[in-house]
Amino acid sequence: MNPVATRIEKDPLGELSVPAEALYGVQTMRAVQNFPISGLRPLEPFIIAQVWIKKAAAMTHRDTGRLDARLADAIVAAADEVLDGGHREQFVVDPYQAGAGTSHNMNVNEVLANRANELLGRARGTYSPVHPNDHVNLAQSTNDTIPTNIRLAVLRQLPAMLAAIDALHGALAQKGVAFDDIVKAGRTHLQDAMPIRLGQEFTAYAGTIARCRKRVVEAADYLNDLGIGGSAVGTGVTVEPEYPALMNTHLRSITGIATLRIGSDRIQLMQSMGDAAAFSASLRGLALDLSKIASDLRLMVSGPRTGLDEIVLPAVQPGSSIMPGKVNPSIPEMVNQVCFQVIGCDTTVAIAAEHGQLELNVMMPVIAHNVLFSMQILTNAIAVFASRCVVGIVANVAMCEYWVERSAALATALMPRIGYAAAAEISKRSVREGTLIRELVARDGLLPPAELDAVLDLRRMTDIGVPSGKRGSDAGG
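The structure assignment produced for this chain is given below.
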């Protein structure tokens, strides 16, 4: 095997060999050597957001005259190549890296500087006329670019996530309408409870997802406040006064995110990761509710002979390597696992957000990775859940009717007519004898047939009211 050609670069710690063909440089190479931790590369949104910031900074400095237009244009051109999908293999720093994200910031600075110099006719590694620190990183710090990156990266991913949530909400709501006439057994504590309509359950699921969406959007709004221009400690040292406003203007244009705002307190925005943690918590809330819905579907589809068998899910793959004909609820199982991972990611984010000290939270790389990873897997899981599971759910009407007639909780409807104690005894006898409550009441002559039919009107039990066969004050006690 031929040895990899290298070039020698120098930084304040000395000389180091860098692959000759690499667009990154010495500081990135040190990070690669220092942090062979996970084998993971930075997530695409984390790369894109940092390049957005560098492009906006070059345009801002060109506007103010602080950076020669020729150099600024070269940086912008290099950034555009990355934004168009090029050079992605050059971003190589492990997510688990030195604090604050300095290694990632320098990785981006070096890639853009080397490519800009190439566009200007110079070789990689010369860092002239464009220098990673002096020009690409001009008036910036890791400490204000990485917090800004996190905000931009989340907001970039938000439309796709909301579209997936909306699709799931629509699919659940549609089933709520389609299943509205199907009465089934309700269950609390996994025990028999009063009847409910299958459509009511699915409508409630849709409502839960709608509330989760609202919380996600509300949490995301705080991320529109940008602290860019804070520089090293939030005070704006080395930053010209017009820089924050110009950066906000250019970032709005570059990203297409029209809601971006100039942060009113850049020191606060650097000190606290509370906004990112709150957004992560909204993802956790979504994951908790989503997992509960997936688990409910797994219960309702259990069987087909020894479980509830109230619904049928689309068959997406054979369910067993040894049991022929077995079909598992594969999509809801995947959703559960994704939700567990998101809950774990949020725990990491919460601990990391608390571990900031004084003017900076150095745990930002792990915060960024976990928030963005949560968004990625949640978005994909929700989209698959809607398209490959929920839209194809079919009700097993016969089994819904079978179980609701056998529910011991139907005795509750008798209580206004015969009292709690007598109703409880009927419920126990039904279970003990294996006889329907309707049959016991008729056999014992506890209610006239017409009144019995009215009291045990299963559809009527699923709406507000007293299931006694009478209405209002005429209903007996």
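Interim note for the steering committee: Residues 142-178 form the longest helix (37 residues). The radius of gyration is 31 Å.
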